[in-house]
Amino acid sequence: MADFHQNGIITTLHNLTHRHQADLEQDLLRFSQQRPLGLLLPSLYSELEGAALPDIIRQLKTVPYLSEIVIGLDRADKSQYQSALQFFGELPQHHRVLWNDGPRLRAIDAELQALDLAPREAGKGRNVWYCMGYILASGKAESVALHDCDIVTYSTEMLARLIYPVANPTFNYEFCKGYYARVAGGRLNGRVNRLLITPLLRALKAVMGSNDYLDYMDSFRYALSGEFSFRRDVLTDLRIPSDWGLEIGVLSEMHRNYANNRLCQVDIADIYDHKHQDLSAEDPKAGLSKMSIDIAKALFRKLATKGVVFTPEHFRSIKASYYRIALDFVETYRNDALMNGLRFDIHEEEASVETFAANIMSAGQVFLENPMETPFIPSWSRVQSALPDIFERLYAAVEADHEEFSG
Fold it and tell me: Is Transferase among the key words of this record (predicted)?
């Protein structure tokens, strides 16, 4: 059972009583009469063939309070899109599948590319961005949850707890971040959050001095969780990265756009597991190695906008401070794991720290060489300013795909 301690400057909503899921859903059903509720699912076609997503869809079929489910489908040809329509067709809720690789959405993307208003690379960020545009276009949901499609420990209680803070009309939250213990299979997981994010934030405070942004980021118990919820109006001015910095980028944007009392985090699961990325220590363009570089760059870019000045000497000090703090955390996590009867591989943990430390320097070098890099996808308000009918066209393209291929 979680404690009730409030750490940092972001409100934490705990799981204190393990309230029955049926009670939560009754509340949400009532809230949905005032605030229609939706769900966004960014998916690869390959996930339809895995073990996690079929179980997620089976459980979602029982959820009574959702007005809309929007699925972003990546890496799918025509036959796979048609297969996906059948796969998701089991959902009783109103739903649409965005065929991101289809000719209609590709044509819209090409037009946006010509205006330098489109995502610059494929990936989860691009998928989520187009789904957010469709949610704005459809207008069917006022509050929306987003979660990944590879969660092997999925429960609809997770969804209920995730969307509750932005669904309850007596709450004033615009955004909610889900958190959980990354414990599954008898071991501690979540290496990037445990061994990169937290130690790096502490190292940045030690070297550059504390500021409101670092205090804010350090308040989140699981900054890299792929589960969050938001009010629809959040999407208009949200700029998100298209790389692995998505989660950090979203948190940074919420810090830029809203007061802290409009944001919260919520305990959504006792256990959580999904597919795991390889460390890829020898390949900085793959796995957790690329993720760590993108995340570090996202933090450096945000701090630069806050007036923080970086030099090569700063990055050397940040790396040294990070390395010492991270190694201390390895011992902390080892003791925590052993006390809870979990397996713990010190060599694997310290190898991860060494890779992340090297990647912090790599990220710093990239930042110094290209300080004007702007990896953020433009906000939908900017896109609409350039193309006033973009929402109507996006909506029409998705509907046309659905009508042509769903039969």
Answer: yes
Evaluate if residue 165 carries a pLDDT over 80.
Answer: yes
Local confidence band at 26 (pLDDT 50, 70, 90 cut-offs) = very high
Nearest-angstrom CA–CA distance, 193 and 199? 9
Give the length of the chain.
407
Q: Is 17 helix (H, G, I), strand (E, B) or coil?
A: coil
Euclidean distance between CA atoms 354 and 358, whole angstroms: 6
41, 43, 211, 344 from 150: Cα distances, Å: 10, 9, 35, 24
Which residues is 376 bridged to in the sheet?
Answer: 241
For residue 148, give Cα distances in angstroms to 2, 67, 152, 313.
24, 19, 10, 38
Angle CA 372–375–379, to nearest 5:
115
Summarised one tens digit per residue, pLDDT across range 166-207 is 999 999 999 999 999 888 889 999 999 999 999 999 999 999
Distance CA 6, CA 245 (A): 26
For residue 116, give the DSSP letter. Answer: T
Beta-strand relationship, 175-180 and 240-241: unpaired
From 164, 359, 177, 150, select the one nearest 272 (Cα to Cα): 150
- More confidently predicted of 140 and 278: 140
The answer to whether 133 touches 380, Cβ cutoff 8 Å, is: yes
Question: How far is the C-alpha of 84 from the C-alpha of 80, rounded, in Å?
Answer: 6
Nearest to 292 by CA among 363, 347, 240: 363
Sign of the alpha-carbon dihedral angle for 10, 212, 288, 48: positive
Q: Is the pLDDT of residue 377 over 70?
A: yes
CB 43 within 8 A of CB 60: no
Backbone angles phi, psi at 50, to 5 degrees: -90, -170
Dist CA 222 CA 194 (whole Å):
9
pLDDT digits (tens, 9 = 90+) for 50-101: 999 999 999 999 999 999 999 999 999 999 999 999 999 999 999 999 999 9
Using only the alpha carbons of the chain, give its radius of gyration. Answer: 21
H-helix or E-strand spanning residue 72: strand 66-74
